[in-house]
Each structure stands twice: as C-alpha cells, then as structure tokens.
C-alpha cells in the first residue's frame, strides 16, 4: 500500500472511532489468526451487579454486607464496586437496617461513614482483598484466597458457589475471624454484540479465544454463551501475556482485546493490541488500536480495514 493509502485508511478508521497508532499496526491486522478477548469489561459489559448474598452463619444480613463493603471500599476492582453499591443500597434503603443505627445517612457521600474502620488493607490481584476490622481478619475473594488464608470451605458452601458458577456468575467468598461467613453471587452480562462478533470472526477465518482471571466454571459458562471454544481461565494478571505468547509460538499473528490494567502486558505482547476506549489509560497506552466506541464490532472493522488496504497491492 502507498503511504497515501495508509493515511486514508487511518482516516477511515478514525471516522469510525478506530484509532490506529501507525502504519505497521494497520498492516499487521490483516494477518491476524487469533483474537484473544479478555472476559471482564471486554466481552462483558464490565458492569457487575450482585445478584445474591447468602450468609452461612447467624450473622445479620445488614451486618454481613457492612463487613464485606468495608473491606472492598478501597478496591478499584469492578467486583468491589458492585459489592459496595449493593451494600450501600441495602443499608440506606432497606427499612429493617436503615433506622437501627444512629449514623448520619447522607446518600451521596463519598466518605462512607456508614462503614467500619479497617486497617492493613491489602489488594491481592487475581484473588481479592484482605484487611482487619476490630482486630479480626476479613478476606473477600475467590477460592485461591481462601486456601491461602487457610479457610475451610464447607461442602454446602462449595455447592452453592458451583451453582452460581454454572449459571455464569462469579462467587465471592467471605471469611471473617477465621471462618467462612458468606458468599455473594455477581453477574456481569455479555455485551449485546459479543456473540455476533465472535461468529463474524469465525466466518473471516479468525479464531476467537477468551482469557480471564475468573474461575474455570464461570469462564466456560460465559464462553459457551458467547460461542467461544478456546478458553484460558484462572490466569493471574501477569499470565495473560504468556497466553498471548503461547498462541504466537507457531508464528501465528495474534490480536489481544482488553480493557484493564492487568491486560496491558498482554496488549503489548500481542502483534495487534486493541484497547477498549472506556478502559484504563494504561491499557490504551499499551495498545496499537483504540476502539473508541467501546463496541466489539470494531475488532472486525479494524481487521477488514487492514485487509482492504493491503490487498490492493497484491
Ligand atoms: P479478570 O481477568 O476477569 O479481569 P481479575 O484478575 O481482575 O480477573 O480477578 C480474578 C478473580 O479474582 C475474580 O474473578 C475474583 O474472583 C477475584 N478478585 C479480584 N479482585 C477482587 C476483589 N476486589 N474482590 C473480590 N474478588 C476479587
Ligand atoms: Mg477486563
């Protein structure tokens, strides 16, 4: 393609909200064989909502949610935001809990005075959060975190988590003072166009893959819903780039589509990194393409544009 053709294509991309960082990136996209999608916030809307909260001890429901939200309020994770939002709603709008403590109820307060004071907050990427409330340790996260903390998961709790995961939800386990006290179910719906894009890529001879830090059972349920056969789950944040490299091993050109901080090494490692425009700045910086409309159809637009631009000279 002539420099003019590249310039024109870059302009066409920009008009469609596909920002391309340079002619090399534009050229590489035509040869893409695998498109690896991050799950949370890329294939899914990234708008997690709590769909259930089960308390396994005699603890009051409001008290349970207050404990969990206090631990999660310092986390930036979408799951944490969903949990805090759910607890906030319960605290302020559930009649049984709204009146029984003497706190000030300012609905729009950014300083959550309705929560417990916590100390020693630690965020454990790919696993959850941990801190202390009243000198007692609270851990909120996945099985891996519970195992690390030496928390026993009773069979009835495990069964409940499995039930959530089989319906494509993520089970968040909560341990307080050495005991498992409850589980939250969180759902994050697929983007409306996700399944159509997956199908479209297949028709173009491109193989879609899903990669996620979430557990295998939830990952498989989501992959099935969207029509992806190739899944890599329980991948630690640093591991996504290794997944990209494993697909590159036979010389295949690999695209990675992601939105999060933990996707940026994989976006950089990919031959074609595509960041969701609504994603974090670090992901956008690491990518070759930015999909400004946050619409997965633009993955196809980008590959098409490259194919059309570079087929003219063949
Ligand atoms: P993803 O690739 O889906 O963005 P992450 O690596 O961010 O996944 O997280 C993987 C898993 O770790 C989550 O599915 C969840 O089980 C657990 N996790 C991470 N952060 C939190 C948190 N703040 N609260 C609870 N669980 C968390
Ligand atoms: Mg993500």
UniProtKB/TrEMBL annotation:
Location relative to the cell: Membrane
Segment forming the signal sequence: none
Superkingdom assignment: Eukaryota
UniProt record similarity statement: Belongs to the cation transport ATPase (P-type) (TC 3.A.3) family. Type IB subfamily.
Name this polypeptide is given: Copper-transporting ATPase RAN1 isoform X2
Whole-protein residues included: 623 to 936 of 1005
């Amino acid at each position: 393609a002539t420099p003019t053709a590249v310039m024109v294509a870059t302009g066409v991309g920009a008009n469609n909200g596909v920002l391309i960082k340079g002619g090399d990136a534009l050229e590489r996209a035509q040869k893409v064989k695998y498109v690896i999608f991050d799950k949370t916030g890329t294939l899914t809307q990234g708008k997690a909502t709590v769909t259930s909260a089960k308390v396994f001890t005699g603890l009051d429901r409001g008290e349970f949610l207050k404990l969990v939200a206090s631990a999660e309020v310092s986390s930036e994770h979408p799951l944490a935001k969903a949990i805090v939002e759910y607890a906030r709603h319960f605290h302020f709008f559930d009649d049984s809990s709204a009146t029984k403590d003497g706190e000030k109820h300012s609905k729009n307060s950014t300083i959550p005075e309705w929560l417990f004071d916590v100390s020693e907050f630690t965020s454990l990427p790919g696993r959850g959060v941990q801190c202390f409330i009243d000198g007692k340790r609270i851990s909120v996260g996945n099985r891996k975190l519970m195992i690390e903390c030496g928390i026993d998961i009773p069979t009835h709790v495990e069964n409940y988590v499995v039930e959530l995961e089989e319906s494509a939800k993520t089970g968040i386990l909560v341990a307080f003072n050495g005991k498992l006290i409850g589980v939250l179910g969180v759902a994050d719906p697929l983007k409306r166009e996700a399944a159509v894009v997956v199908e479209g890529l297949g028709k173009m001879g491109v193989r879609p893959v899903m990669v996620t830090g979430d557990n295998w059972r939830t990952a498989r349920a989501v992959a099935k819903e969207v029509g992806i056969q190739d899944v890599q789950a329980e991948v630690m944040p640093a591991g996504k780039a290794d997944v990209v490299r494993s697909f590159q091993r036979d010389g295949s050109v690999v695209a990675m589509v992601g939105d999060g901080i933990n996707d940026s090494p994989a976006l950089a490692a990919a031959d074609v990194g595509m960041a969701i425009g609504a994603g974090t700045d670090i992901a956008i910086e690491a990518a070759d393409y930015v999909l400004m409309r946050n619409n997965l159809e633009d993955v196809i637009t980008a590959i098409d544009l490259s194919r059309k631009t570079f087929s003219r000279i063949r």
